[in-house]
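Researcher: We're teaching a course module on how sequence relates to structure. For the next exercise, students receive a sequence and then see the predicted structure as tokens, so they can try to spot secondary structure elements on their own. Here is the exercise chain.
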Amino acid sequence: MNGSKVEELHALMRDYFEEFRNNYAECAVLYSGGLDSSIVAFMASRVMAARAYAVGIEGSHDLKAAEEGALELRIPLVKITASSADVVEACGQLCAIFEDALERKPDRLELSIYSPMTLAMKHVREELVFTGQGADEVFGGYDRYRKMSVHERSAAMRDDLSALLTNGIGRDRAIAMRFGKKLSTPYLSEGITHFSRALDDSDRFMDGQNKFLLRKLALQMGLSAGTRAKKAMQYGSGFERIISKEKRNL
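Model: And here is the predicted structure for the students to work with:
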């Protein structure tokens, strides 16, 4: 991989965050301790006072990873430890948000993915909230991509990104708006998505790793998240386990 691509991506990210400098003194980052949110937290903390918010059940992967990552980043962390009742309540709030804003109910997968975000937004104090949404579609984060041919992978990623930009991001914004927050998704910015269209397959998949370019950037920043395997939010937070047990109450 040409190192200039890492530098170009870094510059694009830096420019994106710089646009907020004059209007915001502080921000929140929805944080799992993983690759995507660690890069976002690193960049945000260079521009304004950043606070990380991590959600999970007691002993969950994401709470542990977030605690370690926040120490490395030297940013304050708010750990939101969810009980079964909290998960059920967040699912109820999510259903209400979907029905009001999207005129439908969340499907089973959406329920497990977006209920942690709903609970996090309830606790966020800052108006501006950054997330790592879109990194998987833009830089090849899903495990299923690795099982495809280069041609199949390119088509699948293109379709997934289009669906996210057309419909998916509306879910995130609806949740943020319900709590009076401004949502910002750096990986879905025009500059980053335009940059990604010119990437080679090897910029995303190399040496058995996905999101290879992002990992190179993280390591350049000195972030150990660059070597961590992906953990889906619903599993990393432990919410999927609770939802499966409490499905009769949802």
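Model: If you want an answer key for the exercise: Strands lie at 26-30, 49-57, 77-82, 128-130, 182-184. The domain at 3-243 is CATH 3.40.50.620 (Rossmann fold).
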